[in-house]
């Protein structure tokens, strides 16, 4: 027990001593007040310091009996933290913290791109909705029944009065964390800012979790935002579906072991689901999803248009339905004027005055955050160096109503985003090229994707696969035929070379064309990660097969009448077998399918692959669309090269032992070329997307580097990321691009 230096008691010390105040110091070194005590950085307590013992608990929290932390205590605290850091942490704590870091990075970037973090952002306001989209409020606050969820640490239970008062973002987070039912609906009209409100709430929940003490953090779930498309509640429970989506969206869960870990996190209440876009799902599947969410054992926040949940069997029982309020004229005006220089450019004062006139087209349009952001992007951001005047929007002949004004802003958004501006990166594409490309993309997404997601790995399905497959088959056949001709000429002579080389070329061309054509059927996105291809247990199995086969082959060739091999040559010849075993027993089995090393690559070994792919929790990150595309190209090409080298080494060493080093090298080159081409460029989904982009550029006038264009459009506020896929900024923009073109477009 450590005692602090004493001092003379003050007039307020008696009350302080009787209060039994306690203070705890968090991992960041800040003191946290407990039992009503007040805490500040470096010292704690409701009044002046006084002497008293300090006790350090097993968890590292300190209790000062009427005292405060000083330098000596902070040193003790640091020693306790070092001891805690050395102790192993529970796997679920490690996984939850890793997931929280990935989610934070993902949505901080997205919030910045949406400009939700401006110094003076648009305020968020909500009220309990009067629409019939949920049950009675008694079921949400559980005043007459047992609460399903306890309040999150640091938050109080939500009551009926708290909900009826409404409020802003802090009050919304208090409702999310203190609602006994754990079911929250965020509803509103189209473009009212529901998704933006959900993103801000998610950030606030992550901040609250980061500030909590380590022993409290386990009781605060990590919020993850998903879209419901691809979920069939008749086949998967809510927990199973969420776990599967986490595996696709975060590298932490990119294996079967990760799937089990995601399920454990959900079962333990470590994850809260934010579900956005359920209003885009048809009626019966939507009702089934809501019913499945009612049974989920984790907190749920559903974001939807209000009208989608007013039908029969479309309600989420026990939910508190909060309606996001439209932007007021005062808020819109203050937000836009804060972006302008002082004094403001010409026309803005008149625009600001007209904004406050009830019934004007400008006032009716700027009730949604989307419209405010469009006007900001088109006019306010370039008001000091652009000839465009905002008061042109006040022309009632051109813009008689809110719809015409909104369509004008949508039309001008693309022109503004791709027009060169001072102090901004110069666009790589003209407004005309961008508009033509975005129109094509919007039409394809509308006609082929029910969930309105733009998946880059589906781009090959938008083109005629025949020219691409013919080109891939021809190049592969020509390359394989020339190499085969040279190798056979040197090893077997001209006659056999002329007979067998054309067969090699035809076989290689047909097989390559067939393999590449499989990538044009909207395949699911396969995993592409080093830990998926080389999990530790599969690597261990490969090492065992390598050592075992090398030893057995060396011993077998020591028998009388055999040509003995040196030990080093036997081990080197068996190395490809170990490499092939690793790939066959992991997610990379398709890389060696159909080759000398591909024995066991069929679906019958899926159970073995599932067991061997379990791995410990590691650092994770959110997967972005362009990063996934690049990873597929680079990793698969490298793995294809390794596969080709392995096959070449295996076949070449055997041939060299029988026919000499020179012929062995030639045989190895011919044997390794086939698996390299098939495992690398021919079967590469990223390469197929790049080739399809070339086709689209020739046929539709889209950019050759289409994936780079998609990422650039995201940076310019036209698209947004949804895991490894893209979405249009808003459905209004997609609908406008698929509508009839204006003469000024």
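^ Assign residues to that structure.
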């Amino acid at each position: 027990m450590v005692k602090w230096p004493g001092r003379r008691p003050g007039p307020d010390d008696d009350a302080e001593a009787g209060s039994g105040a306690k203070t705890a110091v968090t991992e960041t070194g800040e003191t946290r007040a407990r039992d009503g005590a007040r805490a500040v950085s470096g010292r704690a307590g409701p009044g002046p310091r006084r002497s008293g013992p300090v006790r350090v608990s097993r968890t590292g929290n300190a209790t000062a009996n009427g005292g405060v932390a000083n330098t000596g205590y902070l040193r003790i605290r640091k020693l306790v933290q070092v001891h805690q850091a050395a102790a192993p942490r529970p796997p679920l704590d490690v996984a939850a913290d890793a997931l929280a870091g990935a989610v934070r990075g993902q949505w901080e970037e997205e919030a910045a791109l949406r400009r939700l973090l401006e110094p003076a952002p648009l305020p968020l306001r909500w009220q309990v909705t009067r629409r019939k989209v949920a049950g009675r409020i008694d079921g949400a606050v559980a005043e007459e029944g047992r609460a399903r969820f306890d309040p999150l640490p640091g938050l109080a239970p939500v009551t009926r009065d708290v909900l009826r008062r409404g409020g802003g973002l802090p009050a919304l987070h208090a409702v999310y964390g203190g609602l006994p039912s754990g079911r929250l609906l965020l509803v509103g009209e189209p473009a009212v800012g529901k998704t933006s409100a959900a993103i801000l709430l998610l950030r606030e929940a992550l901040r609250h979790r980061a500030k909590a003490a380590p022993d409290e953090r386990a009781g605060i779930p990590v919020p993850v935002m998903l879209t419901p498309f691809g979920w069939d509640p008749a086949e998967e429970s809510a927990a199973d579906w969420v776990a599967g989506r986490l595996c696709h969206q975060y590298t932490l869960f990119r294996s079967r072991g990760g799937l089990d870990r995601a399920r454990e996190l959900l079962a333990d209440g470590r994850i809260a689901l934010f579900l956005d876009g359920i209003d885009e799902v048809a009626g019966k599947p939507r009702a089934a999803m809501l019913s499945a969410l009612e049974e989920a054992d984790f907190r749920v926040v559903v974001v939807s248009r209000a009208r989608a949940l007013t039908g029969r069997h479309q309600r989420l029982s026990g939910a508190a339905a909060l309606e996001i309020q439209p932007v007021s004229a005062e808020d819109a005006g203050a937000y836009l004027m804060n972006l302008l220089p002082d004094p403001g450019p010409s026309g803005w004062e008149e625009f600001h005055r007209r904004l406050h006139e009830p019934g004007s087209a400008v006032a009716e349009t700027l009730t949604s955050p989307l419209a405010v952001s469009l006007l900001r992007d088109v006019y306010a951001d370039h008001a000091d160096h652009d000839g465009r005047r905002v008061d042109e929007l006040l022309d009632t002949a051109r813009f008689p109503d809110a719809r015409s004004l909104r369509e004008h802003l949508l039309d001008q958004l693309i022109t503004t985003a791709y027009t060169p501006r001072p102090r901004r990166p110069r666009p790589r594409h003209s407004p005309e090229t961008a508009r033509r490309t975005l129109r094509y993309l919007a039409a394809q997404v509308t006609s082929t994707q029910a969930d309105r997601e733009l998946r880059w790995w589906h781009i090959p399905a938008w083109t005629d696969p025949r020219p691409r497959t013919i080109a891939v088959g021809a190049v592969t056949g020509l390359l394989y035929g020339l190499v085969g001709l040279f190798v056979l000429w040197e090893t077997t002579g001209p006659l056999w070379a002329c007979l067998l080389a054309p067969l090699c070329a035809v076989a290689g061309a047909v097989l390559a064309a067939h393999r590449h054509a499989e990538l044009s059927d909207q395949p699911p996105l396969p995993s592409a990660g080093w830990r998926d291809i080389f999990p530790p247990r599969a690597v261990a199995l490969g090492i065992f097969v390598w050592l075992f086969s090398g030893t057995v082959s060396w011993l077998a060739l020591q028998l009388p009448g055999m040509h003995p091999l040196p030990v080093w040559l036997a081990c080197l010849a068996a190395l490809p077998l170990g490499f092939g075993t690793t790939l066959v027993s992991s997610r990379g089995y398709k890389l060696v399918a159909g080759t000398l090393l591909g024995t066991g690559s069929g679906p019958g070994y899926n159970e073995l692959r599932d067991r061997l792919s379990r791995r410990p929790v590691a650092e994770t990150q959110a997967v972005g669309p362009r990063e996934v595309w690049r990873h597929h190209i680079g990793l698969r090409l490298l793995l294809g090269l390794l596969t080709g080298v392995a096959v070449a080494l295996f076949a070449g060493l055997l041939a060299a032992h029988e026919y000499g080093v020179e012929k062995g090298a030639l045989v190895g080159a011919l044997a390794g070329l086939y698996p390299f081409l098939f495992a690398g460029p021919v079967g590469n989904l990223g390469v197929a997307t790049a080739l399809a982009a070339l086709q689209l550029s020739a046929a539709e006038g889209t950019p050759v580097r289409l994936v780079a264009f998609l990422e650039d459009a995201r940076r310019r506020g036209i698209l947004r990321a949804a895991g490894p896929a893209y979405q249009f900024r808003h459905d209004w923009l997609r609908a406008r691009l698929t509508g009839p073109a204006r003469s000024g477009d």
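The radius of gyration is 32 Å.
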